[in-house]
Amino acid sequence: MSVYEEEIWQSLPEDRGEPPPHLQQWLSGLPRARRALDLGCGDGWLTLHIPAEEVVGADPSWTALDRARTRLPDARLVPVPVDGRLVLEDGGFDLVVMTEVLQHVRDVQLLLSEARRVLEPGGRLAVSAPANNRAGALKLFLRGWFIDPMSPVVRFFSMPSLRACLEEMGFDVEAADSRRGSLLVTATR
Q1: Is the pLDDT at 119 greater than 60, yes or no?
Q2: Could you give the number of structural domains in the chain?
Q3: Domain housing 135
Q4: 167 with 116: CB under 8 angstroms?
Q5: How far apart are CA 82 and CA 86, in angstroms?
Q6: What is the CATH classification number for the domain harbouring 174?
Q7: Which tens digits make up the pLDDT trace of 54-64?
Q8: Please, which residues bridge with residue 37 across strands?
Q9: pLDDT above 90: residue 4
């Protein structure tokens, strides 16, 4: 496990209140899955809203997984390495969800190729990430914002860059929307 991820989760309050309604609604509106993987599930804050018969939550933080056990008593929770191969079976899921994860990942290609590997043929990937674009970045810059070198965010996505990233990794983008500062994309394998 990563000391960095542990420190982040230990600094967050255990009760973070309710997740953003637009993310809850987006997840709840996904077609029901037989078996879903919430990759980067954290403390299970949004996992509860994934429509699936069975949910597996995966995260690199033991602290996050311990917190998720309280919220998700029926879910299988597994630790996963940072920047490594997932310890999950090929084609074992018909839905992989990554909510607010990609912006924190150092090796996006590896994570997306692993997500594709564990998806069954025709399976669905659901990704959300904070929306970033030139106009928004310019506004922040003009107000004195700078990129915090200690921030856990290591990359920024716009809708075109997220779509291109998914397509380059072999996914077919089905739907792409932007709501309340989030990019919401579903794609198939």
Answers
A1: yes
A2: 1
A3: 3-188
A4: no
A5: 9
A6: 3.40.50.150
A7: 999 999 999 99
A8: 56, 96
A9: no
